[in-house]
Design a protein that fits this description.
Elements: H1 2-14, H2 22-36, H3 41-54, H4 63-80, E1 86-96, E2 99-108, H5 125-130
Antiparallel strand pairs: 1-2
Helix pairs in contact: 1-2, 3-4
Length: 137
């Protein structure tokens, strides 16, 4: 997932100031993961808020500009990564000299792709889908 996320974030990384810090680089890759994980329209407003308030100060953008950027990134995901249905989790970024290394866990987000029974799971899968969790009797 790390290599995919790095490829996805590349247009954002290329726009970083020449003198960017490791913190700014990490923030851009994590922001790319936030946008990668957008699944419903409501998630877009959270990504806009993240870009305008949680990014390092010189990378923050006003909400309207942020929304335009997010929509471009969502279009990029649809055009270039359409068949990749993983969520990007546990993202970390390291510099090794001139090399950039992104580590991320990819997890499938669709519970419907799981089998209907899971013997080792301590609750019913139907309850997980509906948001209810019960320990077995």
């Amino acid at each position: 997932m790390g290599e995919t996320l790095l490829d996805y974030a590349r247009p954002l990384i290329q726009q970083l100031p020449h003198d960017h810090t490791l913190e700014e680089l990490k923030s851009v890759v994590i922001f790319a993961a936030v946008v990668w994980n957008v699944e419903v329209v409501e998630d877009i407003s959270g990504a806009v808020r993240y870009l305008s308030t949680k990014m390092p100060p010189r990378l923050r953008v006003p909400p309207a500009k942020g929304l335009a950027l997010i929509l471009r990134m969502l279009t990029r995901k649809d055009q270039c990564f359409r068949d990749d249905h993983r969520l990007a989790l546990a993202v970390d970024v390291h510099r090794d000299g001139a090399d950039l290394r992104v580590i991320a866990v990819g997890a499938v987000s669709e519970l419907d792709s799981l089998p209907s029974t899971v013997d080792c799971w301590p609750c019913n899968l139907g309850d997980i889908r509906s948001g209810r969790r019960h320990l077995p009797n």
